[in-house]
Specification:
By secondary structure, the chain is α+β, with helices and mostly antiparallel strands. It has one domain: Umud Fragment, subunit A, CATH 2.10.109.10. The protein is about 30% helix and about 30% strand. The chain has helices at about 15-25, 130-165; strands at about 35, 50-55, 65-70, 75-85, 90-95, 105, 110-120, 125. Strands 1, 2, 3, 4, 5, 6, 7 and 8 form an eight-stranded antiparallel β-sheet that branches. β7 (about 110-120) and β8 form a beta hairpin. It is globular. It starts with 16 loop residues before the first helix and ends with a helix.
């Protein structure tokens, strides 16, 4: 597990936020990187005043429930891994921010790393450890059930509206 004390890229100056996030794109190292959080999509788990500690990794290193960092069209964001779909032909990762209504599907090449924890003021909050992993998996399952529920309810509502009109 990475130490919170010795992290490359720890930047507190808000004007350097974008530059700091781009360092994650450029790094070939497996050393953890500390980067400021810019959005509230994972609130309350990760807040905009937090500094996210990221371990660069590949998609194969991710587990259900992990907080993963992705890069999509010049956008870098951290969301929970809700589902991993791997077959010989297809490899997709379903991600979802806590505050986002719908999940997204991403390719393994869009994975930059895994969140190890956050620095919140003087407090270090780890996402690792057996107990935290169990909580993350439970949250991931809960999010997946919400998505499945929406997939069932939306067509059902549409069909009911058609029946009521006729």
């Amino acid at each position: 597990m990475a130490s919170f004390g010795k992290i490359r890229g720890f930047i507190l100056n808000k004007s350097d936020y974008t530059k700091a996030w781009k360092t994650l794109l450029m790094t070939k190292s497996r050393e953890p990187v500390a980067l400021p959080v810019l959005s509230g999509s994972m609130h309350p788990l990760i807040q905009t005043e937090d500094v996210l500690i990221i371990q660069p990794c590949k998609a194969g290193d991710l587990h259900l429930g992990d907080i993963a960092v992705f890069s999509v069209k010049n956008r870098i964001f951290a969301h929970r891994v809700v589902f991993i779909f791997l077959t010989k032909r297809w490899k997709l990762i379903m991600e979802k921010g806590i505050q986002n209504k719908f999940p997204g599907w991403l390719k393994p090449g869009q994975v930059l790393g895994r969140g190890l924890g956050v620095k919140r003021g003087k407090q270090n909050i780890s996402f690792l450890g057996r107990e935290n992993r169990q909580i993350q998996r439970a949250e991931s399952c809960r999010e997946l059930l919400k998505v499945i529920g929406e997939c069932i309810l939306i067509p059902a509502r549409f069909i009911l509206s058609l029946i009521r009109k006729s």
